[in-house]
Amino acid sequence: MNTQSKFPKQFSCEFFPPKSEKGADKLHNTLEALAKLEPAYFSVTFGAGGSTQEGTFDTVKEIQEKGYEAAPHLSCIGGTRDSIRALLDKYMSIGVKRIVALRGDLPSGMRDRGDFRYANELVEFIRAETGDQLKLEVAAYPEIHPQAPNAKKDVRNFVRKVKAGANAAITQYFYNVDAYFYFVDECEKQDVDIPIIPGIMPIINYSQLTRFSDMCGAEIPRWIRKRLESFGDDKASILAFGEEVVTDLCRKLLDGGAPGLHFYTMNQTAPTEKLWRNLDL
Ligand code: FAD
């Protein structure tokens, strides 16, 4: 058991801002259903370069107004000190107490990188601007960030964010449980003493999952890929197999001392709700 087991377990859910009225209606229902599970907070993603700025704010506002805690993702790439300061003020004015602080990826066609190069600079800036008023979550990559020159440097860069004042980390999703525990051990050797919460991606749709995984560098183990491929368009079998595999992954993580789970809900109720209930959270 690693030192992560000393932290209280925290369970949270992630949404993306809806892109249509239909999507917004669906999200209202998902929010109400998942709120019954009493997650610690709902985070809301943010398009780097500000592409979903309004959508993220509106979704965060709705969650806060319903009496639940919302945590906006805030990516700094393409932003200026002034624009980030204004966004922080806007969020704090509606009672936000937690931010997921990220670098983000520059959208194609956008050249101006703005005032921040990496997420550690954003964490440092938010701490300097707001002191300890906000809890800051940062991203971690047990399977190594795709742009990192090597694993050692990636851990070193993660440690920069912790030293800059992050309170906790959420990982990129993964299906190799050992990658998480190895990463946690490496961080412990660097005296990292914050919760590193596994990000959990339910398996819902095979082609979407492979597309995401190619983009973000998450590996789908061969045996999972091959089985999912063999189901073809049989959605029920994909969902049943996915539920079994991901429940088992979560169980191994929690049994091994992981300090909670962060569910990438994809704005859907059932996959997260089933995992939650299977795990008896
Ligand atoms: P960083 O920590 O800055 O790392 C980026 C790369 O630079 C890494 O390879 C790292 O090793 C290297 N690096 C870091 N610091 C330094 C340094 N000081 N010197 C040299 N190299 C350095 N993207 C979105 O657009 N919107 C979202 O809402 C969103 N939410 C996410 C939530 C989670 C939990 C996770 C895990 C990812 C999320 N992403 C999101 C994706 C994320 O923005 C990308 O993975 C992005 O490429 C890196 O962001 P980061 O904050 O991890 O960057």
TrEMBL record:
Any one of the GO BP annotations: tetrahydrofolate interconversion
Cofactor(s) of this protein: FAD
Keyword NAD: yes
SUPFAM superfamilies assigned to the protein according to its UniProt record, in alphabetical order: FAD-linked oxidoreductase
Annotated signal sequence range: none
CC per GO annotation: cytosol
InterPro entries: FAD-linked_oxidoreductase-like, Mehydrof_redctse-like, MTHF_reductase_bac
EC number: 1.5.1.54
Keywords: Amino-acid biosynthesis, FAD, Flavoprotein, Methionine biosynthesis, NAD, Oxidoreductase
Entry superkingdom: Bacteria
Catalytic activity entry: (6S)-5-methyl-5,6,7,8-tetrahydrofolate + NAD(+) = (6R)-5,10-methylene-5,6,7,8-tetrahydrofolate + NADH + H(+)
Coiled-coil parts of chain: none
Database matches in CDD domains: MTHFR
Oxidoreductase keyword on record: yes
Any GO molecular function: methylenetetrahydrofolate reductase (NADH) activity
Pathway the protein takes part in: One-carbon metabolism; tetrahydrofolate interconversion; Amino-acid biosynthesis; L-methionine biosynthesis via de novo pathway
Xref: Pfam families: MTHFR (PF02219)
Family: Belongs to the methylenetetrahydrofolate reductase family.
Alphabetized PANTHER family for the sequence: METHYLENETETRAHYDROFOLATE REDUCTASE, METHYLENETETRAHYDROFOLATE REDUCTASE (NADPH)
Protein name in UniProt: Methylenetetrahydrofolate reductase
Species, as recorded: Candidatus Tenderia electrophaga
